[in-house]
Amino acid sequence: MGMEKVSGERKKRRMRQKKVTAVQKLYDTCTEVFADCGPGVIPNAEGIERLKDILNGMTEVDVGVRPNMPYFKLKEIGGFPKITYLHLCECDKFSIGIFLLPPSGVLPLHNHPQMTVFSKLLFGTMHIKAYDWVDDAALISTPKPDSSEGDVGVRLAKLKVNSEFTAPCNASILYPTDGGNMHCFTAMTSCAVLDVLGPPYCDPEGRHCQYYRTHPFMDLSETDDEKKLPEGEKIESYAWLEEIDKPKGLSVIGAMYSGPKIIEKLAF
Q1: What is the rounded CA–CA span in Å between residue 54 and residue 67?
Q2: pTM (2 decimals)?
């Protein structure tokens, strides 16, 4: 009986060692969900639900991050606290990474061209403001409120999200043309955000990160026609977005990921 008990304990130990980690399960599921996707192609509903379920159940422990890490004590650079990015993996179909934002850290308003993005706040409180382009809204040139600065090229967008989120909370999803494709993150406390991008940014393929400056809807709307909105819509729900260069002082620093390892597939 004693030998049988020892053998059973060894078997249980081996089974625990072989248990798939949450981050490995996330990677394996991404390889399946994004396999037939590409720029502008959204995973099917079943795949989206699979990824949501995995992310909703993940915590900071699953990726080895915690609020007392030194990354959350970085000094400000030109008004922006430094942000750290932990790279987990990337292929031509998707990427997985973690943004670590110290208190008051800001990822300015930026886009995700032709991407489906899953974001999971692992800990902390964060304010998210997100926009989608208004259907068929074309880029226009219009005078700034301060006419001495000349004209500015802007495009009309509608506010999709403007709220604070506190972990634990479910993952959020944005799509190529819906869900708040252009968003801004502002950390109210130390925050960690697990991101899955499908496909990832790729400059040669035209998927680069574009930053924006917002202008109030009324400031750049000069004609009565431009001021008209659909019935029941509020002016505060719309804004003009102007493309800008990467904000000065914004610093996103790469750091080594030290959480549970991911065993990547050579090809899929």
Answers
A1: 22
A2: 0.85
Closest by CA position to 198, among listed 36, 86, 9, 45: 36
60 touches 192 (CB < 8 A): yes
* Count of residues in the chain: 268
Mean pLDDT of the chain, nearest integer: 87
What pLDDT, in 10s, does the model give residues 89-122? 999 999 999 999 999 999 999 999 999 999 999 9
Which helix (H) or strand (E) is 252 found in, with range?
Answer: strand 252-255
In this prediction, residue 249 has a pLDDT band, given cuts at 50, 70 and 90, of confident
Cβ-proximal residues to 190 (8 Å cutoff; 6+ apart), any chain: 67, 72, 100, 101, 102, 103, 123, 124
Distance from C-alpha of 62 to C-alpha of 53, rounded to nearest angstrom:
14
Residue 126: strand pairing partners:
165, 187
Q: Where are the alpha helices (DSSP H) in the chain?
A: 2-18, 22-33, 45-56, 224-227
